[in-house]
Amino acid sequence: MEDEGKILNTKNYLQMYTQINIVMYGNQHPANL
């Protein structure tokens, strides 16, 4: 169960990171993703 939580947290983090990149840089692809 702990591993599942980590995977979900990672997915949420990546989604947030991608959204921040889209907001800051427009629709470019985020670097290193």
Report on the architecture of this protein.
The mean pLDDT is 79. The protein is rod-shaped. The chain has one helix at 2-25. With 33 residues, it is mostly helical. It contains one helix and no strands.
| Radius of gyration computed on alpha carbons | 12 Å
Low-confidence stretches: none
- Give the percentage of residues in beta strands: under 5%
Order of helical and strand elements: H
Structural class by sheet pairing and helices: mainly alpha
Mean pLDDT: 79
Shape: rod-shaped
Termini Cα gap: 26 Å
Instruction: Kindly state the percentage of residues in helix.
Output: over 70%
Number of helices: 1
The major sheet is characterized as:
none
Strand elements, count: 0
Question: What labels would you give this structure?
Answer:
single chain; 33 residues; 73% helix; mainly alpha; 1 helix; rod-shaped; 0% strand
Q: Can you give me a brief rundown of this structure?
A:
With 33 residues, the chain is mainly α.
Write the layout of secondary structure elements.
Blueprint: H1 2-25
